[in-house]
């Protein structure tokens, strides 16, 4: 890792523990680049406000300004979310809050936990009722992927789910079915009235979801350091309060115990957090390689990462094309991406469930609603055919390390 990357990690650790990261003696432009890439400028500015260094007064003033901007923006977003929650309760609409809007409250300064959107879960039978409420309150519907609708109004952006996990993060378990029972684990949110329609998950179930969410992003393009920071503040907040037998048993049920052990090892090493359990036999070189991989890709691993590499890494589960060396196998992958199987896309096109013979209709439907992304699909196809195998192998090595 570079000095700037190491300093960012040290600063995040000190943010959690209320410590001083010490003076910065590196390249400011590089520090700004890596911090922006992970959407963490607010935290870095906050740390500089609280740990001033007169030798870098000009740059620190810039960071302070950014921190105040983030604080104001996300404070405003939180207040608007509270208004929406109130409207949902008035309408008798059950909704479960999870992910960033919950985790932010475990941060030393909640307003500095950034998010691009706010997610919550509703019951499937309430989809129309929810949609009517959002439209009536001036929101514009942006996307409809059936399990999730997104809505936007000025600074507000919400993703309203009927499923919290619509894909399997690995072939080892049925994640869709497991998380399809999320409402069975939901409890009324603490601090609200007994008549509230606002729900939350118990800490162990929320932690299991957060870990699976990281695995989902790694299965895609990648997961940045902010997602590990979430785990760190979560574990610190609930230290000594988690039901360990339940947590371990559930992680074993969905074949994520080994993955969680690695994530906890990363959190312990870089944030000095007491973890419930972790993988012990990890070399310093492995930690270094993994953190380089984590930091280079930004919040969700998409910065500078070739889409063709990601696709070939995912397809590597199929040993028949795992080498990806021949043009025929890569062409086969391109065709499969353009014309996916019914089983692959039935979670988004639910009319396929039990009616796979409708797959040609789904292909046309998919082509129509993604027509504005044609150039993106064309570039991905080109990338699959031309990407260097060494980079594919590097990502596969990471994937195998995580036992996904």
Name the helix and strand elements from N-terminus to C-terminus, one letter apiece.
HHHHEHEHEEEHHEEHHHHHHHHHHH
Strand order of the largest sheet: 3-4-5-2-1-7-6
* Shape descriptor: globular
Question: What CATH architecture of the largest domain would you give?
Answer: 2-Layer Sandwich
Number of helices: 19
Largest sheet: 7 strands, mixed
Poorly predicted spans: 317-328
Q: How would you describe this structure to a colleague?
A:
By secondary structure, the chain is of the alpha/beta class. It has two domains: 3-296, Beta Polymerase, domain 2, CATH 3.30.460; 307-401, no CATH class. The chain has helices at 3-17, 28-37, 41-50, 57-90, 100-103, 127-136, 175-179, 182-185, 203-219, 225-237, 244-253, 257-271, 284-296, 307-315, 327-338, 342-345, 359-369, 374-386, 389-401; strands at 95-97, 118-122, 140-144, 148-153, 156-161, 186-188, 198-201. A seven-stranded mixed sheet has the order 3-4-5-2-1-7-6. Helix 9 runs antiparallel to helix 10 (225-237). It is globular. Mean pLDDT is 85; it is low at 317-328.
What secondary-structure arrangement, pairings included, does this model have?
Layout: H1 3-17, H2 28-37, H3 41-50, H4 57-90, E1 95-97, H5 100-103, E2 118-122, H6 127-136, E3 140-144, E4 148-153, E5 156-161, H7 175-179, H8 182-185, E6 186-188, E7 198-201, H9 203-219, H10 225-237, H11 244-253, H12 257-271, H13 284-296, H14 307-315, H15 327-338, H16 342-345, H17 359-369, H18 374-386, H19 389-401
Parallel strand pairs: 1-7, 2-5
Antiparallel strand pairs: 1-2, 3-4, 4-5, 6-7
